[in-house]
Amino acid sequence: MYGGGYIFDEPNRKQLREEEQHDEPEKLAAFEERIAKGEKIEPGDWMPVEYRRQLIRLIEQHAHSEIIGALPEGTWITRAPGFKRKLALIAKVQDEIGHGQLLYNAAETLGKSREAMINDLLSGKSKYSNVFNYPAETWADVAVIGFLIDAAAIVNQVANAKGSYGPYCRALERICYEESFHLKQGHDAFIELATGTPAQKDMLQDALNRWWQPIMHFFGPPDKASSHSEKLMQWKVKMASNDEMRNQFLESYVPKIWELGLTLPDPALRKNPESGRWEYTDPDWDEFFRVINGGGPCNTERLQVRKWAEEQGRWVRKALMRPTEKRAFPVA
Amino acid sequence: MSNDSLDPRVNRLKLGDAGEVVKVEEGENWNIYEVFHQEKRGAHHEHVGCVHAPDPQLALVFAKEQFARRKRCVNLWVVKSADILAFDVEDEDMFANNLEKTYRDASGFKVMEKINKFKQSK
């Protein structure tokens, strides 16, 4: 589901050794030429240290987002209204966990083990998409997540799927295919509430009001505040700017919300007929950073559940372990 | 942590704020297996990705969950990533003249020219 345009930097990133900070200029030039020609980079290929580091960070945080993102929705499986919705939600949540696995594998091809990634998630060193630090209070929240958060994630993932790193692109291709079902079932649940009884409409409007700011946060801080993304764009790690993706999302989905007679809690939201771009009130970015740094309503709970699962599953994993076997990173 | 979580596990298990830092040991997530998917009988098995598993049997079970939830699938193979032997990507140049070997390609033989020349000479 859930990339998010904002890549969090590791708070206590190790200083690279002196020789690692400088890539050989000829190799770097050949590498950049390959990317400019549209070639994909594969695991065994030479790559700049910074390219590898940024990709691990991006893909790992995308993977964590899939795993943690399953939690707010997963709690609604037992309470889904009706058998068909329950089946769809179980399938979706299973897909999200599967996406996490695909992405962990893609990150592993770059040389960071799955265990190291999980440890960094549990210790709080590595982040996940900020939207999952908010609770899904009602069934309407599940409809809003399934429709709009997945839609936002698709905008992000479709862009990233055209990036330069082969294993990440291949994982995203499979993910985007499955996301189309997530989006459709979310839209369907959303429409059912929007066209239902007054109580259902109120419930949906309330969920929309609460989720609008996290959704606007989803693509990350405005371009004017984002640093060092030029190199990432040139290396095709980042495929579109935060504002670009946010605008693309608004262009596609605001009309789909308005056509159902719903409102969005931003009086300034409108498409400028001259520039063709969407205008909106800047969401509260201090709140965004406060939540990323652990101050959101569900940060602690999400990690607690994840730790509990890790601890409860440990004896099974250990019983099945064959530590003498040779391990290797995925080949592609 | 407050007791009014929407996640029933948090309330039921009384998951608290504090707690020891969980550390996953290296190797705890087992080994990596490459997965090959066959869409229909008679077709090649194609590489689709990989799974973590303690042994080949469980790798097959996980591969089914991961790569055969949708669409057609009639069979899967798994093989340990460590057992795959591949050329070094830096040796790619050894294949460079493949496209120049017209003598082992049907397009490298022009028989019609010779036949026509022979017919005209009669």
Automatic annotation (TrEMBL), chain A:
GO MF annotations in UniProt: phenylacetyl-CoA 1,2-epoxidase activity
GO cellular component annotations of the record: cytosol
Chain residue ranges for the region called Disordered: 1-27
Biased composition (Basic and acidic residues): 10-27
Top-rank taxon, per record: Bacteria
GO biological process assignments: phenylacetate catabolic process
Protein name, as recorded: Ring-1,2-phenylacetyl-CoA epoxidase subunit PaaA
Automatic annotation (TrEMBL), chain B:
Domain of life: Bacteria
Protein name (Swiss-Prot/TrEMBL): Ring-1,2-phenylacetyl-CoA epoxidase subunit PaaB
Native species: Chitinophaga arvensicola
